[in-house]
Amino acid sequence: MVIVMMKLLLICFIIVVSVCFTSTEVNEAKVNCTELNNNLANAIASFSKCAITYSRPIKLCEQCVNEYIDVSNGYQNMSASKDEDGVCLDGYIHLDNLEILETLYGNANELWNRANCDKCFQMDNGTLTNVSSVETTTFNVLFTNLTDCIKQPDVNATTVCQNCAKQYNELNKFYIAISYENRGGVCMDVVDVMNGTRGYWSSNCCKFRHRNELGFIISTVFISLLTILFYILTKVCSQKRAPVILKRK
């Protein structure tokens, strides 16, 4: 009798433990999907804040790469995780016309791709990393060389064009080369830096060149006009006047 009761107690204990364990697993699975959704929401919010913060000058790719990686990982985690109802992501998408999760994730992804930010970093078997690409690193070194030259104590507004022309030409030449190689587009961080650099160089250096060329241009135009006038006068003067025939009365 005692043995039978012990067996019954053991069976009851096993059943209770199994029920509790199963209930715990279900609750953990539900909490897991909720936590994954919250993690993705926080990642998208952080990326959006970072993108706005570094919108001008554009440093989106360089400064927000970790936030974007968190967004991608968060979405992938929801796609790969399941609970008793199925894949976690399925509980938040294709359920209404708003498609809030898909829309916000799509906006972050579209912004990153439109800026060609992947071109700024190295890829590991097709996966984005936060390690700068060789092209980006080289460009930043050349840009630093130019800015260091401009900031030298003996360089001012009248000497910068002559003293730093070598550094500028090297930077500009490298940018043209990577633009030609990357027909799909160059990382927007690099594009924005180069646009600003060209604008600075044009406003500070090209004006001196224009002044030096002004006299040459005026002289060229004047000589051209004299040449044209000479040929016109020569042609007019060389024409023979037709003889006038008088009729007899």
UniProtKB/TrEMBL annotation:
CC annotations in GO: cytosol
Signal peptide: 1-24
Swiss-Prot/TrEMBL keywords: Membrane, Signal, Transmembrane, Transmembrane helix
Origin: domain of life: Eukaryota
Alphabetical list of Pfam families matching this protein: OSTMP1
Regions crossing the membrane: 214-233
Protein name: Osteopetrosis-associated transmembrane protein 1
